[in-house]
Amino acid sequence: MTLVPAAHERGITTLTLDSPANRNALSARLVGELADALSACAKDPSVRAVQLTHTGGTFCAGADLKTPPDPAALVALLRGIVGLPKPVVARVTGHVRAGGLGLLGACDISAAGPGASFAFTESRLGLAPAVISMPLLPRMDPRAAARYYLTGERFDAAEAARTGLITIGSDDDVDQALAPVLDGLRRASPQGLAESKRLVTATVLAAFDRDTDTLVERSASLFASREAAEGVTAFLERRDPAWVL
């Protein structure tokens, strides 16, 4: 049974992260299936745009700490979203943590409702938001990125929109907020969308071209470190890691 079912309506293909047992965490399998689904959308002329959403109360909990994806595979997924010749729109009605924020950064447009919350939790695990920085830092307010990268604080949809992490922070129904966006995409030509997307993603793709090797190596090194082992173990055991004061 697929972890990323697809549905199509009037030019919009909706891909749903459907692994609620682990809060849609980025396991090797989910990353692979999502990458394959996006590749299929890129080749399908009936797809004008992609909407990425989720089941359950969590959009994505970040990397699956029990079966994490290879950092290179995660980078390929994020770059694939940015480089897809069709817009990708994220629809968020739940929580987003760590690597899940990288998915939002890679999407062209994202909207979150009042039930959404966000947090860069990596620093609390002895890690850092290394590879996900490539789609995020070119788009986020630098001061906000510094604060939330370092502290791991949780913040809401309004703050996520203010900082540039997402496009729309809605106090009401997220589908109502996205309706004019999807209508606009349906009215645009395939060529117009592809060429316009090339313009707005150029700096993000440049970050991937410049930093991928360095950040993949850094991510792998951090995951293999003693501090990360303690942080992940403490998280799984639901206790504070040894360094908490």
Low-confidence stretches: none
Number of strands: 10
What's the SSE pattern?
Answer: EEHEEHEEHEEHHEHEHHH
Distance between the termini: 44 Å
Q: Helix coverage percent of residues?
A: 40-55%
What would you note in describing this structure?
This protein is of the alpha/beta class and 245 residues long. It has a domain at 6-171: 2-enoyl-CoA Hydratase, Chain A, domain 1, CATH 3.90.226. It is built from nine helices and ten strands. The chain has helices at 28-43, 71-83, 99-106, 133-136, 142-151, 157-163, 174-187, 190-223, 226-237, and strands at 6-9, 12-17, 49-54, 58-60, 88-92, 95-97, 109-112, 117-119, 155-156, 168-169. The strands form two sheets. The chain has a six-stranded mixed β-sheet, sandwiched between helices. Helix 1 runs parallel beside helix 2 and helix 2 (71-83) packs antiparallel against helix 8. The chain is globular. The model has no long low-confidence stretch (mean pLDDT 96). This is Enoyl-CoA hydratase. InterPro entries: ClpP/crotonase-like_dom_sf, Enoyl-CoA_hydra/iso, Enoyl-CoA_hydra_C, Enoyl-CoA_Hydratase/Isomerase. GO terms for molecular function: catalytic activity.
